[in-house]
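User: Reviewer 2 asked us to show a designed sequence for the structure in our supplementary figure. I'm pasting the structure tokens here. Could you produce the per-position amino acids so we can include them in the response letter?
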């Protein structure tokens, strides 16, 4: 069964974004989320924003650090590092989004998939901030923040 959770548009001086978030509930499984990216127009300032996704294993966490801007074209980098994190021998993955200036629905789609994969593998995944306005708004508009374990800072995520 598919249930439309939200279809919202965000507009500000820098960009406009329209998303639909679907919830899919199986007969015996938990609710799963899917994101459809309908339209996006960005200010040229964000079009040239460089992105960087890195992963490092430290003590009891694999830290995925995301900086700059991640969109459909660069989301594969995030997906690959999150897959590496899931395979790591650390008890948790911390996704540090404090340096993420821009994100679209592709990022959310990758994070939702990684969260499902981590849970299926019995691994913990924590999203760390502080989140920028654009990223925070993406979670708010789609109503998906409750699907993740969120921490206000990287330090808080490492100790949760």
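Assistant: Here is a per-position design you can include in the supplement:
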């Amino acid at each position: 069964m598919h249930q439309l959770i939200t279809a919202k548009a965000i507009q500000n001086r820098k960009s406009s974004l329209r998303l639909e978030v679907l919830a899919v509930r199986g007969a015996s499984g938990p609710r799963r989320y899917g994101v459809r990216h309908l339209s996006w127009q960005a200010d040229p300032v964000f079009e040239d924003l460089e992105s960087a996704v890195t992963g490092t294993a430290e003590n009891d966490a694999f830290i995925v650090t995301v900086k700059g801007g991640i969109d459909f074209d660069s989301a594969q980098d995030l997906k690959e590092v999150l897959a590496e994190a899931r395979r790591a021998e650390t008890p948790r993955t911390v996704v540090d989004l404090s340096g993420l200036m821009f994100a679209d629905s592709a990022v959310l789609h990758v994070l939702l998939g990684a969260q499902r994969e981590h849970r299926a593998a019995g691994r913990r995944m924590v999203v760390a901030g502080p989140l920028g306005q654009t990223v925070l708004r993406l979670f708010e508009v789609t109503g998906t923040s409750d699907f993740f374990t969120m921490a206000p800072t990287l330090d808080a995520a490492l100790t949760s």
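For the response letter, you might also mention the following. The two ends are 34 Å apart (CA to CA). The CA atoms of residues 56 and 151 lie 19 Å apart.
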